[in-house]
Amino acid sequence: MKSKKEFIFSRANYKLMLIGFVVIALGFILMVGGSSNDPNVFNPEIFNFRRIRLAPALVLIGFGIEIAAILRSFNNSKKS
Q: Is 19 helix (H, G, I), strand (E, B) or coil?
């Protein structure tokens, strides 16, 4: 009597998790930059739309995708 080992999540859950990780990484990548080489010079680039609105929204959307990937129940069992 040999039992077949199954993963906790289905293949679709893992794909959704990977998409969530990519969206989160893209959000953090969009937040990077805007610094100045001279600390005495102010760079207003840090307050542009991409860093203040878009990037944090992408990170939050990515976390939402991750939660959905964990909670979503895809039909994992194949009945013969």
A: helix
